Amino acid sequence: MELRHTRTFVTVAELGTISKAALHLRIAQPALSRQIADLERELGLRLFDRVGRRLRLTGEGEQLLNDCRILLNYASAVGDRAQLLRHGDTGVLKVAASPQFIEATISNVLPRYTRNYPNVQVKLFEAVGLENLAMLERGEVHLGQNLSHAVEPNDHRFASYPLGPVELLAAGHPGPNLGQRGKIEISSLAPYPLLALDAVFSVRRTFDAACRLAGFKPNVIFESRAPNLLLALASARHGVAIIPSSLQIHRRDLQIVRVTYRGRPIREMLTVLSDKRRPSTRYAEAFCEMCAEQVRKALPGTRSFESRRGRTG
Amino acid sequence: MELRHTRTFVTVAELGTISKAALHLRIAQPALSRQIADLERELGLRLFDRVGRRLRLTGEGEQLLNDCRILLNYASAVGDRAQLLRHGDTGVLKVAASPQFIEATISNVLPRYTRNYPNVQVKLFEAVGLENLAMLERGEVHLGQNLSHAVEPNDHRFASYPLGPVELLAAGHPGPNLGQRGKIEISSLAPYPLLALDAVFSVRRTFDAACRLAGFKPNVIFESRAPNLLLALASARHGVAIIPSSLQIHRRDLQIVRVTYRGRPIREMLTVLSDKRRPSTRYAEAFCEMCAEQVRKALPGTRSFESRRGRTG
DNA sequence: GTCCTTTATGCCGAAATGGCATAAAGCGCC
DNA sequence: GGCGCTTTATGCCATTTCGGCATAAAGGAC
């Protein structure tokens, strides 16, 4: 079926004659006469009765008329949608991130982002460790949140948007001092049973590297992909949990300190990665900007856990 | 926009490559490549990124993909609908009839008719007197219910489908005998104040003609287009109402008798008219048949008012 | 480096489309 | 009954569009 023929049919039905439709559509009358004939042949039925030299809509024609109007309206709407898309502020944005990042950052960003980009549809995918690198590679997502060290230095496939630093933290049951003044040198963790994240997490690999540099082997007695489980066990005096500062911690029954190496906090950059081969869009960049703002806003929060520890220490 | 281009776009998006789409659509790959390019030019945006020599759906392309699927589905549905229409049991049937006929006959016919012709849409128009002749003339309706005498004998514009006879009735307040044994000779109506229908009703013109033949002038004190108003006034002893037997009478406080001329009931044929110039459809004829059946079923009902009057007489 | 898959472009023949001219069919008016 | 007008359908033709063939170009896998 040709939309052109459908348009002719609807116009003739509405104006009453092919001659009037010809004037309206700026196409010669014989051409429209043929289009009507072509459409009738294609559909296999009469849309108009020929009464003398005049046309009269048939019952079948009447039935199809509304369907054709709807079809033409929808085609027009697709054109309108395309015009809207041309403005660049519309599309699908697929983001792969850890559950923690979604909870702590993305969930706070979405309301304002949706107001600013009403025609962008954000689709979230839960992914941990290197999963989102693979998803980026396969083109399944546009953005993947991770830590900067997740990408090998010689791996140039991904563009990286820095959001802010993430520090290594140790969380234990309030009791005998865990570290001094909110800090613990990493080598001082040697005697503690440790509760750590799985090796798929970049933060875990960063922790392992720091231990190696400090010349000691960590006593990891439990590994998990669920950071909150680690915190729950730490609260139950089962050990000391090693977690990133990007984790939103609601528990108040824990003593949390920064892990340092040679007196300096062990930091890693939280980033959003994208596929270098894929052209970036304005709404994707805006999303990254808003996440970076949100991470910066949360940074004072990482400082506020120190003052909370003050009374217990 | 060309549906052909839209179909190509959706097929390429689904199969992943133009070459595969070409195999599927049985069109050479270069032709499809051009169709994609043509669609992108027309819409003014990129539907696919060219990654090396491969295509990757853009965000905009993804947004439009579903719209295009819907559009294609609807176009297909129009084609399906046309095929259904081709079978002849589908269309619009426009019927003009008096309110009384709609209530007494058509409302009883519609449920069964709709079951038998589920794809026919019946549209009812209320029309009295000669209105439906004009509507038929203008092509506004397919069928017009009326009495046979509504059409001038030399008027050959309309085809006529007889439904059944309609008799002239007189209705009055139960009291002194109105007529004998359920009948009243028309000349015996002379002394009564009469409540009659407007002159647009064929039944009224038939009544006037019978009075003229009987050689007397009827004493019509009130005229209306609302038969039920006439009955209400008759019940209130305001006069004697002249009505057709096709009227469905629910009141039990009235004495109703047949009006006769020279001992024979005055009858007229109830018919459904159609425009001779317009080809008839099977579902229109079926509608007439069902109405005729319903009118015949109602005829025993016109006899049953006699037995109801028996006790009062 | 070779082979394979895929897309984009040049070129060309066939098909489709639309315009012009005009015959045919009614209808209204005189 | 003839004329003028409006309208549709058809013949003919020029132009445009479309799709197929050939092939260059770009990566990816081995």
Task: Explain what this protein looks like in three dimensions.
The structure is a homodimer of 313-residue chains. Chain A has 313 residues and is of the alpha/beta class. Chain A has two domains: 3-86, Arc Repressor Mutant, subunit A; 90-309, D-Maltodextrin-Binding Protein, domain 2 (3-Layer(aba) Sandwich), CATH 3.40.190. The first copy, chain A, is built from nine helices and 13 strands. Chain A has helices spanning 3-15, 18-25, 29-43, 59-86, 99-116, 131-138, 202-214, 227-235, 282-309, and strands spanning 48-51, 54-57, 90-97, 119-126, 143-147, 158-172, 183-185, 194-197, 220-224, 240-244, 255-261, 264-265, 267-275. In chain A, strands 3, 4, 5, 6, 7, 8, 9, 10, 11, 12 and 13 form an eleven-stranded mixed sheet that branches. In chain A, strand 8 (194-197), helix 7 and strand 9 form a beta-alpha-beta unit. The radius of gyration of chain A is 32 Å and the shape is rod-shaped. The first copy, chain A, starts with a helix and ends with a helix. At the A-B interface, helix 4 and strand 3 of A face helix 4 and strand 3 of B. Chain A binds a DNA duplex (30 and 30 nucleotides) through helix 3.
